[in-house]
Amino acid sequence: MSTNVARVLVCLEEVGAEYEVVNIDFQAKEHKSAEHLARNPFGQIPAFQDGDVVLFESRAISKYIIRKYKSAGEAADLLREGDLREAAMVDVWTEVEAHQYNPALSPVVYECLIYPAMRGVPTNQKVVDESLEKLRKVLDVYEARLSKHTYLAGDSVSFADLNHFPFTFYFMATPHASLFDSYPHVKAWWERLVARPSMKKLGATMAAAAAGIKQA
Amino acid sequence: MAAPVTVYGPVISPAVARVAACLLEKDVPFQIEPVDMSKGKHKSPSFLKLQPFGQVPAFKDHLTTVFESRAICRYICDQYADRGNQALFGKKEDGAVGRAAIEQWIESEGQSFNPPSLAIIFQLAFAPMMGRTTDLAVVGQNEAKLAKVLDVYDQRLGESQYFAGDDFSLADLVHLPNADFLVNRTNKAGLITERKNLARWWDDVSARPAWKKVTEMQSAPRPS
């Protein structure tokens, strides 16, 4: 399953929304069809539709979902929009995931899992080594942060934490998962996250999809 | 009287300029606190308290410290909601839908436009300043990636006055620093000026008083 689709599904699960997943057939170039380009002009996934509302970009979609369902009362305030300072912290660590964490971690996922499985391309060890070096520096910062706070934006879970789920889940299936053992607070935070019902459910789907790809 | 708003970092840095543009659009007075990166001040313990990754900008006001330029911009829009440009992060009456329309193009900028444009800008504008050789292969690869993104942008801006609709918003603002660098400080201006709708949009947004003020600040002699 696409990591960015999973990003949105985690939020849908967390707010308890009913939703339907519609597959886009990349082999048949459906992502470049006029119909899909009308939903996502970059021809990427996910795209999202809720009545007349059509959106692209997984983080924008996710925020819309959280805002829509927040007023239903059941969702934890994952964006903390009742408090300007807390909302800023959620946004800061959401941006950090996008611009620091993911650029360091995702190449390892692509090189170790995705490219070999989906394109039959061997792992580029140089890219992996450079990325792991960057990731260690990022995890130094995360370790310091998570030594002071239970979650990235404070003492309860937020959108910032949820964003880390999809790529980190796949990272843990690479040979480099043990890197997190050197960062005890980061590891503990990760284990708290994946114990959440939303992530257990999606993790099972993602693992099955990954197994399906490997066998293809 | 509230404590001054402080932005840490040189305005020539695209990410710092992004924040300055937002503050100017919102009519929020601020001061720039220089960070001498040539002397490694961005890695000093006191700066790392503000920005633990040792990058610019950092931002501080009476309430809190924020980093990551797009997070700072969103915070400015909400904290100073009653000042300056009222449509920058969506009109109240447009609610979550209006804000989502802006967010998707802010995300496009951060995910698809920024990486290749920044790579080009670094090679063509910053590397020479730092006494490093320009890697033309990197420029070429990123130009190809950026061209695909700009084709999508050109189509969008043929359907819509601004990225998110009829009003200038954060979706447009976040693009300003890198676009300005490409057009005015590299030989790759054509990427923007040779795409009809994108050129129309660029002429419009770059003429905004707030953006003109940012470029004046970028050209001012730097404190030594």
TrEMBL record, chain A:
<dbReference type="Pfam" id="PF00043">
    <property type="entry name" value="GST_C"/>
</dbReference>
<feature type="domain" description="GST N-terminal">
    <location>
        <begin position="1"/>
        <end position="73"/>
    </location>
</feature>
<dbReference type="InterPro" id="IPR004046">
    <property type="entry name" value="GST_C"/>
</dbReference>
<dbReference type="InterPro" id="IPR010987">
    <property type="entry name" value="Glutathione-S-Trfase_C-like"/>
</dbReference>
<dbReference type="GO" id="GO:0004364">
    <property type="term" value="F:glutathione transferase activity"/>
</dbReference>
<keyword id="KW-0808">Transferase</keyword>
<dbReference type="GO" id="GO:0043295">
    <property type="term" value="F:glutathione binding"/>
</dbReference>
<protein>
    <recommendedName>
        <fullName>glutathione transferase</fullName>
        <ecNumber>2.5.1.18</ecNumber>
    </recommendedName>
</protein>
<comment type="similarity">
    <text>Belongs to the GST superfamily. Phi family.</text>
</comment>
<dbReference type="InterPro" id="IPR034347">
    <property type="entry name" value="GST_Phi_C"/>
</dbReference>
<dbReference type="InterPro" id="IPR004045">
    <property type="entry name" value="Glutathione_S-Trfase_N"/>
</dbReference>
<dbReference type="GO" id="GO:0009635">
    <property type="term" value="P:response to herbicide"/>
</dbReference>
<dbReference type="Pfam" id="PF02798">
    <property type="entry name" value="GST_N"/>
</dbReference>
<dbReference type="InterPro" id="IPR040079">
    <property type="entry name" value="Glutathione_S-Trfase"/>
</dbReference>
<feature type="domain" description="GST C-terminal">
    <location>
        <begin position="83"/>
        <end position="216"/>
    </location>
</feature>
<dbReference type="InterPro" id="IPR036282">
    <property type="entry name" value="Glutathione-S-Trfase_C_sf"/>
</dbReference>
<dbReference type="InterPro" id="IPR036249">
    <property type="entry name" value="Thioredoxin-like_sf"/>
</dbReference>
<dbReference type="GO" id="GO:0006749">
    <property type="term" value="P:glutathione metabolic process"/>
</dbReference>
<dbReference type="GO" id="GO:0005737">
    <property type="term" value="C:cytoplasm"/>
</dbReference>
Automatic annotation (TrEMBL), chain B:
<dbReference type="GO" id="GO:0004364">
    <property type="term" value="F:glutathione transferase activity"/>
</dbReference>
<dbReference type="GO" id="GO:0043295">
    <property type="term" value="F:glutathione binding"/>
</dbReference>
<dbReference type="InterPro" id="IPR036282">
    <property type="entry name" value="Glutathione-S-Trfase_C_sf"/>
</dbReference>
<dbReference type="Pfam" id="PF00043">
    <property type="entry name" value="GST_C"/>
</dbReference>
<dbReference type="Pfam" id="PF02798">
    <property type="entry name" value="GST_N"/>
</dbReference>
<feature type="domain" description="GST N-terminal">
    <location>
        <begin position="3"/>
        <end position="84"/>
    </location>
</feature>
<keyword id="KW-0808">Transferase</keyword>
<protein>
    <recommendedName>
        <fullName>glutathione transferase</fullName>
        <ecNumber>2.5.1.18</ecNumber>
    </recommendedName>
</protein>
<dbReference type="InterPro" id="IPR040079">
    <property type="entry name" value="Glutathione_S-Trfase"/>
</dbReference>
<dbReference type="InterPro" id="IPR036249">
    <property type="entry name" value="Thioredoxin-like_sf"/>
</dbReference>
<dbReference type="GO" id="GO:0009636">
    <property type="term" value="P:response to toxic substance"/>
</dbReference>
<dbReference type="GO" id="GO:0006749">
    <property type="term" value="P:glutathione metabolic process"/>
</dbReference>
<dbReference type="GO" id="GO:0005737">
    <property type="term" value="C:cytoplasm"/>
</dbReference>
<dbReference type="InterPro" id="IPR004045">
    <property type="entry name" value="Glutathione_S-Trfase_N"/>
</dbReference>
<dbReference type="InterPro" id="IPR004046">
    <property type="entry name" value="GST_C"/>
</dbReference>
<dbReference type="InterPro" id="IPR010987">
    <property type="entry name" value="Glutathione-S-Trfase_C-like"/>
</dbReference>
<dbReference type="InterPro" id="IPR034347">
    <property type="entry name" value="GST_Phi_C"/>
</dbReference>
<comment type="similarity">
    <text>Belongs to the GST superfamily. Phi family.</text>
</comment>
<feature type="domain" description="GST C-terminal">
    <location>
        <begin position="95"/>
        <end position="224"/>
    </location>
</feature>
